[in-house]
Amino acid sequence: MNRVPMTQKGAERLRAELERLKGEDRPKVIAAIAEARAHGDLKENAEYHAAREQQGFIEGRIAELESALSYAEVIDPTRLNAGKRIVFGATVDLADEDSGEEVSYQIVGELEADIKQNRLSVTSPFARALIGKSEGDSFEFNAPNGTRHYEILSVRYEG
Predict the structure, then answer these.
(1) How confident is the model at residue 123 (pLDDT cuts 50, 70, 90)?
(2) Are 22 and 127 in contact (CB under 8 A)?
(3) How many CA atoms lie within 13 A of 105 on its CB side?
(4) What's 134's DSSP letter?
(5) Model confidence over 42-78: pLDDT tens digits?
(6) DSSP code of 24?
(7) Taking a C-beta distance cutoff of 8 angstroms, is the pair 6, 74 a contact?
(8) Residues 6+ apart with CB under 8 A from 144
């Protein structure tokens, strides 16, 4: 598998989640399974089946995180010397030229993307439209709800 880009903060968040899953969540679900087993007949024991299902989710997420971190190429955005040009790791302040609304996004790896936290996957169409542009540029983006016009107000690289 190819190396997957990830910011330093993103890798730290995933490692913290992995530690929590292994150190807290996994032991809790194992204890819940043991307690449910003590209640007797497993066929009709809803607590047992729910705990086993939860264990499956936890083990799956642990495997996913371990794999992701093993293939991650951690990139520190503060060490990139891109100036005011947008590359992976950039935090970009944009103004929607149609509505005047301003928004900030950071371009991150796929596994750390979270639109609620304004972190865009580097592979998303919007991030791909931003890559290579510079502070002060204007561009249009063909969104599902129509063409949008943006101006890039600033580009910065934060740790």
Answers:
(1) very high
(2) no
(3) 27
(4) B
(5) 777 788 889 999 999 999 999 999 999 999 999 888 7
(6) I
(7) yes
(8) none
Query: Token digits for 39?
Result: 């209640």
**What's the CATH code, domain 4-75?**
1.10.287.180
Query: How is residue 135 annotated by DSSP?
Result: T
**Quick one: fold of 77-156?**
Chitinase A; domain 3 (3.10.50)
> What does DSSP assign to residue 78?
G
Q: Domain locations in the chain? A: 4-75, 77-156
The dihedrals phi and psi of 133, each to the nearest 5 degrees, come to: -80, 165
DSSP character string of 27-50: HHHHHHHHHHHHTS-STT-HHHHH
- Could you check whether 4-75 and 77-156 share the same CATH topology? no
Each residue's pLDDT tens digit, 68-118 = 999 999 988 878 777 889 999 999 999 998 888 999 999 999 889 999 999
